[in-house]
Each structure stands twice: as C-alpha cells, then as structure tokens.
Amino acid sequence: QVQLVESGGGSVQAGGSLRLSCAATGVTLSSSSRCMGWFRQAPGKEREGVATLYLGGVYTSYADSVKGRFTISRDNAKNTLYLQMNSLTPEDTAMYYCAASRAGTSASFCYHGRSKEYTYWGQGTQVTVSS
Question: How far apart are CA 93 and CA 67, in angstroms?
C-alpha cells in the first residue's frame, strides 16, 4: 500500500525559502514507472499542480507560476521526494500535497496539470507566506 507523508511546511516571510519533503512507503522511487509530484490548494481556490516528475526517467513539469523558483527532486536512498521553494510570495500560501500515480503510468501522463492521474495523496503540509 502506498503511503505518502509530507513535512517541511511552515510560515515564512516573502522572499524566503522552504523545502518540503514527502516520505514514501509502498513505492520505490528508484525503480518505479509512475508519476509523483506536488500539488497545492489555497482557501477558496481549486487544487493546482505545482511540480511533477516521472520516476522512470528525467521528465519534469512545472506550473508557470513557480518556474525558476521551485525545484522538484528526489533522494532514492531515502525514498523521499522534495520540493525546494525559493523566492516565496504570499500567492504561494496554500496546503501542499504530495501525490503519486499508479504503477505503470507513462511519462506522458505526468504533466502537472493532470491531477486526475494521481491516485495516492498525502495529508498535506501548510505553507504560509507573509508580506
């Protein structure tokens, strides 16, 4: 059974940085053909994809609003997915969720905008950016 546990959220001033972590069990990041990524949802807004990647290759996908500021990465030895967030703005305030697709997903389905491809979700970690 796939379980995803996020951590690393918190409160930071605009311009600051945070690194989110997603510890995964039930899936081996180093040898899996599936998508994983980060999504966020702010109060009163729809969930949106932030950054995603394909575990079986080098494909990554970023929302335009975070390109150049956020970086998705993984540590296979720790079986953990990360989201490094720099130059944070109040517009980045949201609950951030880690998600994974089913095994056998093609890289073409890993686009950050295709949240319906993601079957497994963590409980979320709150990020609050003050001006």
Answer: 16
Q: Cα–Cα distance between 84 and 108 in angstroms, integer?
A: 23
Q: What one-character DSSP code corresponds to residue 108?
A: G
Cβ-contact 82, 72 below 8 angstroms:
yes
Residues of the chain below pLDDT 70: none
CB 97 within 8 A of CB 121: yes
Q: Provide φ and ψ at 31, rounded to 5°.
A: -145, 50
User: For residue 31, what pLDDT is reported?
Assistant: 78
Helix (H, G, I), strand (E, B) or coil at 109: helix
pLDDT of residue 62: 97
The pairing of strands 10-13 and 125-130 is parallel
